[in-house]
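Handout, page 2. Input:
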Amino acid sequence: MNSLQLSFIIFILVPYSISFGRCDDMSFSICWMSEGGALERQDGNVWLNDTALKSIRAEGKVTSLTVPPAVENKLTLQYGGYVQSWTLRFTPRTKDTEVRGQQKPVEQPTSATKGFLDSMSPNEVFACENGTVFFHQDEDFFLAVGHTKRLPVALESRSPSMLLVSWGENRPAFSSSHMVTLYYIELGSFNALGTDTIINTTNNHYRFTALNACSAYVPCVETGGSHSLICIATITGTV
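Output:
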């Protein structure tokens, strides 16, 4: 084998626990958590398909972003002086995750990662809870991919200028607030377009308006008192 062949390794990762049923409601996500300013201290960033994700996060909470299945997605991590990239492909029908790259991910969480995930309320959903593989783990940061059929945030409808997002139960019993944020792509990174806080309401949806047609956006929902920020990648309708 020549050097080019040696530098490109393929791993097929099949989750041990398979849940049978429809696959069209399965959500694949990238999940990451940074606390104590870990990304800043380590001069870190995460890119999905060459778009920086660093601005989409809540300190000390696990952030998740849905990833389209059945197509190749490029995931890049810069952290602590090194840069690693992987190509990912998720197959809903078989629940397989294909990972190509030089560094093989691991399926077991470290004690620090497990401790954080165990601290989540039973009502909360870890968006990478099934078929989870970890690309990096230390005391203050982890990066993983996985899937769930219980994602509590969904796109209900869209138009050329509007996105209607809803959410289900993903909160501690005492929580009564939600923070919604909309991100858009500008100059190779996601930037916040606006944030709103919903307090003491029974509404479980939010309408983002005055948007550009046929444009990529990322709505995020953070529940007060929770350990997670749930984001979905979507696009507005055409004119």
